[in-house]
Amino acid sequence: MCWPRLAGSQGALRHRTQRRLPPSLTRARAHPSLPDQQNAHQARELLNQAIQALGGQAYLSIHNLQEQGRVYSFYHGRPSSNGVFFWRFVEFPDKERIELTPERDIAYIYTGDKGYEVTYKGPRPVEQKDLDDYQRRKRFSLETLLRTWVNDPKVALFFDGAALAGNLAAQKVTLINSKDEGVSLYFDIDTHLPIEKSYTWRDPVDREKNVEEETYNGYRLIQGIMTPFGFTRYFNGDMQTERFHNLRQLQCDIG
After folding, report:
1. Which of 75, 174, 229, 247 is the most exposed, having the fewest neighbouring CB atoms within 10 Å of its CB?
2. E runs forming strands in the chain
3. 3-class SS at 33?
4. Is the peptide bond before 93 cis (omega within 30 degrees of 0)?
């Protein structure tokens, strides 16, 4: 998810870009060969294992999410703040509220395709660039990938085999949707839990490619669902934000 910008800015280093499919392979997606089908089956199997490891149907049925903790910002890999208390409330699929500071006197509210900042001066629309960042990160969020993308027949799945997520051994799967947007997920070899996500996007102004990554750690079992309590986001190789939770509450809709 997108977080309000704290002190500091994004780094400019360019590093690991995702695999881009050549046109011949993109065309082949419409008529996959047997090896392609087997590869897609392996990818699907790993994704299903990850969903089961997270909690299976309970994970897929999460409707409301509440979090609180502390978020830190970084500039060129160095801390640029002492951390800010946050409270986050999510109602899937498209409502979110983030409250900041111990007084909870700054809030960001997102509903559908609109976003607002609320302070003592009252509400005002979120700047368009910040809203675009939020919408993009929501589109590539782990919840969206494992609850929506995996069920879309237009999304191609690729099993990339063994890989490294930082210094951790992992298995990697790449998903590419009908808009040719791709995202790679890395899963722990033993637990099958997601430990990293990576995707690229092109800046509409300078046309440069950017790489965004997010890592997940500190998993705990909460209400039958394996839940990460630590998140780190990187932008073009630079650590951008780090988030630690001390409370997460979930509400599931299971018939």
Report:
1. 247
2. 62-75, 78-79, 84-91, 95-100, 106-111, 114-119, 122-125, 156-165, 168-176, 182-188, 194-202, 209-217, 220-222, 225-227, 230-235, 238-252
3. coil
4. yes
Q: Provide the pLDDT for residue 80.
A: 85
Spatial distance between the Cα atoms of 165 and 197, rounded to a whole number of angstroms? 9
Q: How many C-beta atoms surround the C-beta of residue 120 within 10 A?
A: 7
Distance CA 46, CA 192 (A): 8
Contacts of 76 (CB under 8 A, 6+ apart): 11, 238
Q: Give tens-digit pLDDT for 181-195.
A: 999 999 999 999 999
Give all domains of the chain, ordered by start, each with its CATH number.
35-252 (2.50.20.10)
Among 118, 145, 113, 119, smallest CA distance to 131 is for 113
Is residue 115 over pLDDT 50?
Answer: yes
The per-residue pLDDT for range 139-184, each reduced to its tens digit, is 999 999 999 999 999 999 999 999 999 899 999 999 999 999 999 9
| Burial zone of 209 (CB within 10 Å; 0-12 exposed, 13-18 middle, 19+ buried) | middle
CA 243 – CA 216 distance, rounded (Å)? 10
**Structural contact between residues 189 and 207, judged by C-beta atoms closer than 8 angstroms:** no
The total of other beta-carbon atoms located within 10 Å of residue 9's CB is: 14
Residue 18 has φ and ψ, to the nearest 5°, of: -75, 160
Report how far apart, in Å, the C-alpha atoms of 35 and of each of 57, 95, 114, 142, 143 are: 30, 41, 43, 27, 29
Q: 84 near 68, Cβ under 8 Å?
A: no
Intra-chain end-to-end CA distance of the chain, in Å: 28
